[in-house]
Input
Amino acid sequence: MRPVTFDETAVALEAINLSVTLRRSRDGADIPAVNGVSFTLYRGRTLGIVGESGCGKSTTAMSLLRLLPRTARIAGQIRFRGEDLLAASEERLRAIRGRYISMIFQDPMVALDPLFTIGDQLAEPLRIHCGLEGDALRARQVELLAAVGISTPETRLTQYPHQMSGGMLQRIVGAIAMSCNPDVLIADEPTTALDPRAQASYLDLLKMFGETYGLALVMVTHDMGVVARVCDDVLVMYAGQAVEKGPVRQIFNAPKHPYTRALLTSIPNGEVEREWLPTIAGQPPDLSRLPPGCSFAPRCSAAQERCSREAQIERVVGDRHRARCWRAVAP
Amino acid sequence: MSSTYPTPPSPEAIRVSGSRPRLPWFALALLAPVLVFGIFGPLLFLHDPTAINLMTPQKPPVWLAGGEWAYPLGTDQLGRDLLSRLMEGARVSLTIAAVGVLLAAMIGITAGMAAGYFGGFVDTIISQIVDIKMSIPATLLIILLGAVIGGGLVTIVVSVIFLFWADYARIIRAEALSLRERGYVLLAKVANAGHGRILRRHILPNLFGTCIVLVTLQVGRAILIEAGISFIGLGVQPPATAWGMMVFEGRSYLSTAWWLPTFSGLAITITVLGTSLFGDWLRDRLDTRASAL
Amino acid sequence: MLSYFLRRLGRAAITIVAVSLIVFVAVRATGDPTFSLVAEDATEAEIAEVRAELGLDRPYFVQYAIYVGDVISGDFGTSLRYKQPAFDLVVQRLPATLQLALAAFILSTVFGILLGILAALRQGRWPDMAIRAFAALGLSAPSFWVGILAILLFGVMLQWLPTSGRAHPLSLLLPAMTLALHSMASIVRLTRSAMLETSSAEYIKFLRSKGLPERLIIWKHALRNALVPIVAILGLQLSNLVGGAVIIEVVFNWPGVGRLMIEALVNHDFPVIQAGVLLITLSTVLVNLAIDMSYGVIDPRIKYQ
Amino acid sequence: MTLPVLEVSGLAKHYPVGSPWFHRGERSVVRAVDGISFSIAEGETFGLIGESGCGKTTTVKMLLGLEPSTAGRILFQGEEVQNADAATLRQYRAQIQTVFQDPYSSLSPRMRVEEIIAEPLITDGRLSAADRRDRVAELLEVVGLPKEAATRFPHEFSGGQRQRIAIARSLSQRPRLLILDEPVSALDVSIRAQVLNLLRDLQQRLGLSYLLISHDFDVVAHMCRRIAVMYLGRIVETGPTKIVRDRPSHPYSKALFSAVLAPDPDAVHRHIRLPGVPPSPIDPPSGCRFRTRCPLAQPLCAEVEPQLLAGAGGALAACHFTERIDSM
Output
């Protein structure tokens, strides 16, 4: 795989006012899982989408390729290479999936079909999108496995998923996702199921992909450590909304939304025996019964009367830095 | 695995599934007449089901030429009222099915729970017996049994137990095996709970749904077995009657009195269909893993 | 793979031994055969002599060993009715039963899987509804009754197909279809739910994200994975079909072991019954073993267990 | 010096593997835990850290008496509990309780919270039903749940609340020591802080000792003054958290901590990657178990098994070449 030169200000993909409604199977209620989220992906940069479970981060990621359940309804725009993916035909999308935009899922142990060899599953996108066959196909397979750091790739190609460890499988999933040199790679909690050491080296691998091949990387995660390690930009989600977004340093050094601030301070940060951790009171809200005004207001220690009446739209608080809070101000 | 991050069910994990009806109306509609006749049969008889009337043999149902309201579904070769006989058959079939299935359930659930919970040697033995049972054609066992103890009610009930206990054992074993590894069972052991308490308070309550579903689904199959046994002449003996026997007897009059085998077979089909639809509904409602049936 | 094969082989052997034990116990339970062999006014000494000749005075395990020896050499005794060796009677009829059961097995497997896939692909729409209704009925209707209705319709009313015996080449059609119905219905249901379950699996989602055509996802990945649980129950289906054949043979006058055994039952012809039970079980267990072996072809995980 | 609450020495668990029928002679043995020693003082939190498969879970099971050990001693407040009589064992189990990782499978779904919390008291049988009810109400208050929770079922609670219920249950018999097996790794970040604070608060109020087992170094560092690092069934390094983290003496600890993801974008990372794959606990490498992946390995490592000795950093490390640690 050859490094490519690219322009860091080139927009790879743009999501505009993305909203997703899912149907909850328990009671058939409509859940506004994602609510008016916008963001831009740049080549060679990594966007972290962070939040707690149920905040809509995975749904956002899945909706970029329209890989949602059939009952889901998506609104907004996803602009990619001059077209709106939400308006594209299913056939057009298939040509884009795995070729220009590809994905990595959370659990590598179930991401590969247990009945087919690694080689077979790696060959599929290469055949379909790149038209590779025979020796060229094989050479590319070996090259890809080597690129993700798998020793003895020739043997691995003939093996089945159950013969490999989770860390190795996730590398193979990475190789499959990278097989056609995509523009955008969406990684949905790619290291949550891995051991700490496997986690760190996998993140380094993804980071290297982004920088070397001009990939726009989306990293969905709940772990601020992961964000700090690989991301250039962050989008913090709470109850289906992007409460804050901006460059990673600005967000970590001067968070503007009280939720972001609470998230950053409430994690044990490696300081030995710190006495008490600041906490966020209460529980995340039920998405089918969101409070009026700002969704975070009921848990917010700085909430004012106004917060429970109306929600702030995205407020400019810095260069490319936005926050949905009445009290957020530019530095 | 202590290092994985189990995600609790979240809106992101929503799966496509149709909405479930509140009550299985169709299944209940199918079962209602069977249950009413089965329970109140003797009060509703138009005729004594065993009364032979040689003046009225092979009368067709009322909507055909020659039919009359006194015999709504016609009569058999001996002039007995078909409807009354079907009601009587319902009683016999339902009783046998219920008794057989319940006894089989008791044996099977005990065996399955023992195998799944205790594992080891107990499990090896029970699983081996279940395996053997599964690979022997059921009808052959019934024939062998019939040859040894002769026909009759006992044969049917014993056959039902014999055939069904292994199903319970297999499914309950698998379920108990996975329940045994749950955190709460380990914690109960840490809390000094004995096997009795763990089985009673932790395992059994969580098996309950599966058991109910299994019993419901098996009642239908037991009726089919009963019919089959009666059909090969090992079931209840005349003058008592059962649905399978009625199909068998009616078979000889196929060309002259088609209604005889048709209606008795229909009664079996409706009942079995009703119970299995009801069982399917229960299974979806209780969300158990008894899908192996 | 070898250890898997050995384990299966061991299981098959244990099954056969268990059946032989069951039959052996049944033979003893039907009564002392001595009395059917001696004259009614036989003396104690004469009875004892016959018993010794038959080996009935020896310990049970010795009797069982003798019994097994007899069985292996094909000696199941003589039919009380036909005065022929029971073994020969059963072996003559065995091909007819196996033909019927295998025809039904192929019918139910092929159509069961196809219809199950179709229902899963059209989930919630009319083909799904129709197939599910058909499967529910197929599981609820007693096969002998369906057979009788089929005779009534195709034989008596339409007169399209032969309904009795085994003489005509088309004779196999009605009994095989009738016999296949129940097992086909359960394969339909299993295939449908297995297909739906694999379709929501994580690896199918990943395949979609790779941009694979839907037909490749369904016919290559989803189907192959759905086949794993289906193949696992095919052996069970086969033994159900062989059992069901006994009844269907009676309905259609099919000259197989089943009808022979029902006749034997009526005539208390015990040697024929025990020969039938043992030989049919033996053939079922062997075919079952073959099916189990094919399991490793579908699921590579088996090889490494 | 006061007696430690728990003292473990030379604890080991070996499982035979493979079918007894197909193997002749010696059967292979999985050395899941192979001779570990540590002690926990009154009111202390001791951390056990390692990757999956290092033997953490087996250690927990042995300490809880769910698995018999193959060798070694477990002393609870100075008293031997291995092979103890039933009464001693019961008493021991009342004093050592546990909280598991998964709050979804650790509460019986068809039991009311009341019975879940009171189960250890029910099997113990010393309290009357009324006293048990009072105790449950008291415990609910201690963990910050409303009294009404008692009559509800687990599925009515969120993950964090369930973990509070699990903690309340573990406290029901006033234990001395809690074994916390990944107590927060299944919880969301904001809930995690609440539970960690609760645990710390309980420790101070009730004078509890904790054994905290986790693969999350930040959580361990936050809670523990002393830790032990496990690799393939053995403790490779142990000592004060600060020292083990800042100046690890064992190459494995060093590699492990280099992988910690600090939530700070300006942190300098130098992730030390280890060659090869983790060896199987069936037939572990001779000598030092870590040598097959160790950048410092020498021929000596294959021959002599290193013992826990004072290492370069100041903690106890099982390494022959601990003075070369800085060359990594």
Q: What stands out?
A: The mean pLDDT of chain C is 83. Residues 96-298 of chain C form a domain with the MetI-like fold fold (CATH 1.10.3720.10). Chain C has twelve helices and no strands.
